[in-house]
Amino acid sequence: MRLEELLQYDDIMIQCHDDPDADAIACGWTLLTYLESKGKTPRLVYTGERKVRKVNLLLMLDKFSIPLEYLPEPEGTPELLVTVDGQAGEGNMSPLPCRNLAVIDHHEVEDKRALPAMSEVRSGCGSCASVLWSMLMDEGFVPDIHLSTALYYGLYMDTNGFRGMSNPLDRDMQEALRIDGSVLSQLKSANLSVEELGIVGDALASLHRNPEFRFAVAQVRPCDPNILGVVSDQVMTVDQVDVCVSYCLLSDYVKISVRSYLEKVQADKLARWIAHGFLNDAGGDRMKAGGRLPLNLVRQVCCDVADTGWDGLEGAVGRLMYRRIASYFEGAIQLRAGEYQMDGSEVLYRKKKIPSGYVPSDQLFPEGTEILIRMIEGDAIKKAGPDLYIRIGVSGETYLNKREDLLRNYELLDEPYEIEGVYPPVVYHAETHEKKSLEKYAKQCVAKDEAKIWARQLDRRAEVITGWGMMLGEAGDWLAAKADNPQDIYIIRRGIFEKTYELAR
To answer: What is the pLDDT of residues 376-386, one digit of tens each?
Structure first.
């Protein structure tokens, strides 16, 4: 979706999710400003059970004079409703009537077919601010210093001070924005009131930690749901804690906040695992997620409240979460390249005769130049040279190959290759930061008949230790090994496997 598509409508309402955070507010205000620059008069609103009351958010609204309206009840039926940092129908986005719907978001989508025609959802991004900034760049709209500061702060808060930032688009925005450092410092230093500090302190004192799997569960007394995120972020600074779930009981539901810095544990998937059987009202992204569990269902499951260290219903809920998180870790299998032995369930597959892309690194920069390759999988620093080739898959995934390996498995063509995917990889000169997009240089390559693999579909989570790092597979993904080296195992995502492989005949 392009932002210009929204301009066909006049009566426009922008909706942030309930209990909006800095990312949602920044995105809503930025979109409002963009539309106003095009002659539109949109409204910026949020709904839910309570008004914004966190001190940093109130300061943000005041510093930037953001016209955010609270709608306890729906008002009218706008011609167009645009949801930012959330999706209509999700548990944290109270429904509002509308004649047309658009979505701008960065959270995981279980069924993309349910999205409206006008939607831009990039699940890998650390913040919705990154998604909106990219869309603004496509329109040639450069945000001023105030909008830039708000977007920067949204990214900062959604990635726990950039510690949870991994998507290349997040890094692109962070480096590009021109911000007001003074205002940003004020926002950073106004994160908690004295009362909220007491709530956080009590939660940290109630912490239950699992030393084996390095996760923690924090019980928080009833509060603004945004405080849960503060608790989770604080717990994540504790030594020997890689995953945290904080929760509190509110009037009708249990609110949870999930954080994970483990590559092998994605926060959104863990949140859904915890919420299983409770209407699955949970979601988020790889490092940050949340959910709501209906209190009436929770009471039914947590009828047995007696347990050492867990008191009352609140304690029973915490114990339930503790057990579900532990089962999530226990259900995974761990495999290591070089040690794996096939069990006979693997089947021989070959690459389909469909083009992927390749770029010799020394076509981008002279041999010996230190380069930073920015791709959806993360940043990699290498030296350009005739032996380093960058290959691009059908979904924009990126592989670094030696020339001899690429020539052995692929026929290199001289035809241009059009890169698909949410983020076309780019390469930077490490010293000058000169930027070159692979889209301009990519040529086609087609797999040779010899490019075969052994593969089987996973029926559970798997952690695969490869020669270049850890890969995480979910049920439905494929465990693969090169036909000529069955111990060289790796993960192929289900969607990519179905696009690119077929049975070897």
So the answer is: 767 788 999 99
